[in-house]
Design brief:
By secondary structure, the chain is an alpha+beta fold. It contains 14 helices and 7 strands. The termini are far apart.
Length: 342
């Protein structure tokens, strides 16, 4: 079963987690918390003092006895003392009288949460779209309409940052789909011909391409892709590039890592994919981070950095725990720049 967690937002260039009271606003916020519009899914929000701390989305199981990540949910909630859960079932049927779809599954989830002392509210809606009607599992007569997802505070914030919610998880995954095999093979041949460069020169090459990404409208050339793949294959360079996850160039760097995740052949694809995962994790997009980690670990089974990030993401560890890595990377990057200039 696919389960998509979102880690709490990092302090980098992000607003605090949204404070939501109305179910219609809560439901409208989900696509911008997840990065896509879920369908036939259970969305769980962990809430502390009316503020959403973390969100988890799972595809609906066939029935209440099917596997559902209850253990993962309760472990995640346990990390937030005083937390409550606000959940949403999206799609899969229509209300029948006073009975909402998936009531048995919702009862199962709420029973387990209650056993751990966690209060919960659960709602149902056919779809996350403006004007869709939502219902309360406690009282199906308690109903309202979903706010416009495109007009929410989160939507505006995402738009300012150049981000948007994809229509589906599959559409988001397509963002990282590898290029055709003939292009990958062509670049792999180029990579084999390139000599290794000093770490400082390689790091400068990557930074120059990050800076170019802001204005560049054309696709990277095969020689550019090969040169960047070789540069990032130096773990010192790759680790120093973690520093780009914060600061003025973070968005441009994430765009470059996204392109290279598509464009680099395996096993070199693992390095930009891991950097993309780090960037996405730090800004709270756990779904993109998870997809990037899938690409990294497929391209390079046993890849250490992606393995560490996967463990952190699966355990819903706060992105603050990654900040020491960013600080170390920044110090390493400064040393590289200093050594090259001497």
């Amino acid at each position: 079963m696919t389960t998509d967690p979102t880690p709490p937002f990092s302090p980098f260039d992000e607003p605090s987690r949204p404070r939501l009271h109305d179910p219609g606003d809560l439901i409208a916020a989900v696509p911008h918390l997840m990065g896509y519009y879920p369908t036939d899914a259970v969305v769980i929000n962990v809430v502390v003092d009316a503020t959403i701390q973390v969100t988890m989305c799972s595809k609906l199981p066939v029935n209440a006895q099917s596997q559902h990540p209850i253990e993962q949910l309760t472990a995640m909630v346990a990390r937030y003392p005083g937390a409550a859960v606000a959940g949403i079932v999206v799609g899969d049927g229509t209300p029948t009288g006073d009975t909402l779809p998936r009531k048995e599954l919702v009862t199962q989830i709420r029973t387990v949460l209650a056993e751990h002392g966690v209060p919960s509210e659960m709602f149902w809606t056919a779809a996350i779209t403006a004007g869709a009607r939502w219902h309360d599992y406690d009282d199906p007569c308690h109903t309202g309409v979903v706010s416009d997802p495109n007009s929410s505070v989160l939507a505006v914030t995402a738009a300012v940052q150049g981000l948007h919610a994809f229509d589906s998880r599959e559409d988001l995954a397509a963002l990282l789909r590898p290029d055709p095999q003939d292009a990958l093979a062509r670049r792999a041949a180029l990579i084999e011909q390139l000599p290794e460069r000093p770490a400082g020169a390689s790091y400068r090459l990557v930074l120059d391409q990050v800076a170019r990404t802001v204005e560049r409208s054309e696709a990277l050339s095969d020689p550019d892709i090969a040169a960047l793949a070789v540069a990032l294959s130096d773990y010192m360079v790759r680790d120093a590039c973690i520093s780009t996850s914060a600061g003025d160039h973070a968005r441009a760097a994430e765009q470059l890592w996204t392109e290279l995740t598509r464009q680099c052949p395996a096993p070199h694809r693992a390095e930009p994919a891991a950097l993309l995962a780090m960037s996405a994790y730090l800004r709270g997009n756990g779904v993109l981070a998870s997809l990037a980690l899938d690409r990294a670990q497929t391209a390079f089974p046993g890849h250490r950095l992606s393995g560490l990030l996967r463990t952190a993401l699966d355990r819903s560890i706060h992105s603050d725990a990654l900040l020491p890595l960013v600080r170390q990377a920044t110090e390493q990057a400064e040393r590289m720049v200093s050594d090259q200039s001497e």
